[in-house]
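User: Now give one protein:

AI:
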Amino acid sequence: MIAQPVHPTFAIVGHPNKGKSSIVATLAEDEAVAISPDPGTTRIARSFRMRINDQTLYELVDTPGFQRPRAILEWLKQHERGADARPQVVREFVAAHAKDQRFESEVELLKPILAGAGVLYVVDGTHPYGPEYEPEMEVLRWTGRPRMALINLIGAGDFIEDWRAALNQYFSIVRVFDAQRADFSKRLELLRAFRELGGGDAGWAGALDRAVSALESERRERRRRTALEIVELLSDVLSFREVGPAPEHADQRQLVKELSDRLMARVRNREQAARRVVQDLYQHSRLEANEAAIDLLTEDVFSERSFVMFGLSTTQLAMTGAATGALAGGVIDAAVGGASLLLGAGIGALLGGIGVVFGANRLAKVQVFGAPMGGMQMQVGPITNPNFPWVVLGRALLHHRLIAERNHARRESFVVDASATAHSSEAIPSDIRNRIARAFKRIRQDAGLSTADREQLASDVELCLKA
């Protein structure tokens, strides 16, 4: 009698280099799972538990690939004592070959199955089916454990139907699952299929139902915490100021540039800090080091391209400004040197005389005032450009979408198609956009938000994250 694990446990088995570790990384949300195109990367069985709040929802065992399935099957048949004794014969094989290096991989992958794990057999549906897979599938059938086959998609070929026809003869459940591209909904769909492996075991099904519920709840909490972090980011970057001495005969333009450079550096650093928080929330703490130079999100937040891709168009700026009463006329702004500060064609053809558009190609407020100990000081900031907070928000929304839907099997850099969209903030519904615009105005006027206003802005940002 096999003792059942205290939580649902699945052994991921199959041929070498068919994506077993990718499936483990995806379902366990674990970047620590070793993934490599080289066969034999996994040499010993290793467990990965999916936990939320120190509660184990389920466990996945990454195993080595089959090396000598035909030899094992021959041994099993030589010791055949009837179908009812087959699981025991498999157990005897493991005991007899525990120290036999020829069967090291098979012993490792069979141990968790004999300990009560369900079997998830992984094949690559982009390569043809062949009879060489049948001995290992037959060995798994001898274990007597509940079995599901997963048709993974690693390359560009399509042999899914051939695989399905063969797998249906050995496995009660066959599913197609792209470990590299499966989003959150696909992962939940697979977990719901896992519950069928328990047969009539109500405890197994109940545990997996609780796992799905816990993951959905965690997803909502991650989205809420992301929204709060984005609110903090916006509140900070719209309040930043840089102050420095302004001697009477100093080059004022150079002083403005130096203080503006410092201000922009603070904004960039704060945005990167917010990204790290979101990546940590979704268990992607290692992703930042892998971002490609061509990734749209590595574009400088102050560049013309960022304003074109993420900000509002001139028309929408005017409409939103009219709806919120956000007139910018009369503000003394600084248009310091450097193309990165001028919006150019992105916000071109400005409509002179419309308040929120007036001065839209300028960056930040500049003031010169007397210092307490004498002399003069110059202050650059806060950033008054009306499109700037929309750029920051749009970039944060895109970053969240990429992180939230990226699974943990993907180790390459993520790349955004910069031609796919423009003025992405315009996709926000007008009623939400107007409320957000009013929050931006209050942050600038009051250097922050009340508790109630902060909660409202967080709720609106969260609605944008769901879209």
In short: The first strand starts at residue 9 and ends at 14.
